[in-house]
Design brief:
The structure is a single chain. By secondary structure, the chain is mainly alpha-helical. It is built from 7 helices and 2 strands. The protein has helices at residues 5-8, 11-23, 29-40, 44-52, 57-62, 89-105, 110-113, and strands at residues 77-78, 81-82. Strand 1 (77-78) and strand 2 form a beta hairpin. Helix 2 (11-23) runs parallel beside helix 6 (89-105) and helix 3 (29-40) packs antiparallel against helix 6 (89-105). The protein is globular and about 30 Å long. The N and C termini lie far apart (37 Å).
Length: 116
């Protein structure tokens, strides 16, 4: 099976779009970073370095220090697919991140986004 194009795409390519999406709704880049750190376990310094290094989504998630086990609580539709039914593990992680950013942009409180 051919890999999805997004797997080899640098996270840094999509990151500004995440920030732009949430800033239009009054949220901040710091909140996007918080969501990414919560999901992956990266420190802020590690995250900034990965963005600067143009790390692909595949490498980004493969090297994540501690993918949050509460990510399994994230459900719903994103990009026309139910997050919880996506069979490819990497694509599911990417769509979970998309879903978290979407929830942030929709004004959901941070404690609910982070499933606390």
């Amino acid at each position: 099976m051919a890999q999805a194009k997004i797997f080899s795409m640098p996270v840094a390519t999509v990151y500004p779009l995440y920030v732009q999406k949430v800033e239009k709704k009054g949220r901040t880049a710091a909140e996007v970073d918080e969501v990414i750190r919560w999901l992956t376990g990266y420190s802020d310094q590690q995250l900034q370095q990965l963005l600067a290094d143009q790390t692909s989504f595949e490498s980004f998630f493969a090297a994540a220090p501690a993918f949050n086990p509460q990510a399994t609580l994230i459900t719903g539709m994103i990009c026309g697919y139910r997050v919880e039914t996506i069979s490819d593990p990497l694509m599911q992680k990417i769509r979970v991140l998309d879903k978290l950013v979407d929830e942030l942009a929709k004004g959901k409180p941070m404690y609910k986004i982070l499933r606390q």
